[in-house]
């Protein structure tokens, strides 16, 4: 397998979008930004205030836990967020900033406008485009063990296209030689160091918060405390907002006062992963290890993905 530098050189071309990535229609977006929609936060968006460009973005990563994070932060009264993914900085940029602003919910003075589109993190043009909108934009990246993330990504695609080849077939350029196919988006997204390099050309590390997708499950309140501090918000979303759903195997938000049911992620979350050949998982761990180490060095955070694997 190629050394990290070689893979980065080999893979530095434009990122190909996975056709299975969720896409949002214009109609959904116009509904998201309209008064009274659920797009605006923990309760219905009031028909007052004004639409502003977002001051904070959840930019990645796909299948990392971005939806869970968005739902949790929307429970904060000082946050208004679009429920759907606008995909402005990757797919809709030519529509212009006024279109983007119009998609946003109305906010009052002191409230933060947010959106999440996980594919931004792997889009070459996104850092420059966001920087030209507002260079002080706060960025949040939810990362997860790249091996688990790749399998989760594949599982999502498989649920939509049952006829696709097995994970093992897609993961290798050459199975006999153990050559991983880093051009397959499910693998490539998890080379976090490669993508982060692009962002650091435009934004200082202090403007990017890295959230652990694993800890978002084991300690959601702890991770949310970091998110609220980073956004300059009071710590309103705490332990009392979460309960553990044994069926799904992850935490859910307790019901807000103004709603009749707890907010749990949809049935597409927490899907059972297909059984993958242990040898393939082992090879993927070896492939990702140098990139993970590089990512820990770049961010100053050790996500202990190798540690996790040895515990199993």
Automatic annotation (TrEMBL):
Coiled coil: none annotated. Its EC number is 2.8.2.-. It comes from the Eukaryota. 3'-phosphoadenylyl sulfate binds at residues 63-67, 144, 152, 269-273. Pfam families: Sulfotransfer_1. Residues 1-51 are annotated as: Disordered. InterPro entries: NST/OST, P-loop_NTPase, Sulfotransferase_dom. The keyword Iron-sulfur does not apply. Transmembrane segments: none annotated. The active site is at residue 63. Residues 54-289 form the Sulfotransferase domain. Disulfide bonds join 252-264. PANTHER family: HEPARAN SULFATE GLUCOSAMINE 3-O-SULFOTRANSFERASE 4, HEPARAN SULFATE SULFOTRANSFERASE. This is Sulfotransferase.
């Amino acid at each position: 397998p190629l050394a990290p530098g070689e893979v980065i050189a080999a893979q530095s071309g434009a990122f190909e979008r996975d056709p299975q990535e969720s896409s949002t229609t214009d109609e959904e977006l116009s509904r998201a930004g309209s008064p009274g929609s659920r797009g605006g936060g923990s309760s219905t968006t009031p028909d007052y205030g004004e639409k502003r460009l977002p001051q904070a973005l959840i930019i990645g990563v796909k299948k990392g836990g971005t939806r869970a994070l968005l739902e949790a932060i929307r429970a904060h009264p000082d946050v208004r967020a679009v429920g759907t993914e606008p995909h402005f900085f990757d797919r809709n940029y030519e529509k212009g900033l006024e279109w983007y602003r119009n998609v946003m919910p109305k906010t009052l003075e002191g409230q933060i406008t947010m959106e999440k589109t996980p594919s931004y993190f792997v889009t070459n043009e996104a850092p420059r485009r966001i920087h030209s909108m507002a260079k002080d934009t706060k960025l949040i990246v939810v990362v997860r063990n790249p091996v688990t993330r790749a399998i989760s990504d594949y599982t999502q695609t498989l649920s939509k296209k049952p006829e696709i080849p097995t994970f093992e077939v897609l993961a290798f350029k050459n199975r006999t030689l153990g050559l991983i196919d880093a051009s397959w988006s499910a693998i490539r997204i998890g080379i976090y160091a490669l993508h982060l390099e692009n962002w650091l050309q435009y934004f200082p590390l202090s403007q990017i918060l890295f959230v652990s997708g694993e800890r978002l499950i084991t300690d959601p309140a702890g991770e949310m405390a970091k998110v609220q501090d980073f956004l300059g918000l009071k710590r309103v979303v705490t332990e009392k907002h979460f309960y553990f759903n044994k069926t799904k195997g992850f935490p859910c938000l307790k019901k807000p006062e103004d709603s009749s049911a707890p907010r749990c992620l949809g049935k597409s979350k927490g899907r059972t992963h297909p059984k993958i050949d242990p040898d393939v998982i082992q090879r993927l761990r070896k492939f990702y290890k140098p990139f993970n180490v590089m990512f820990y060095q770049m961010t100053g955070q050790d996500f202990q993905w190798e540690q996790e694997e040895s515990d199993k």
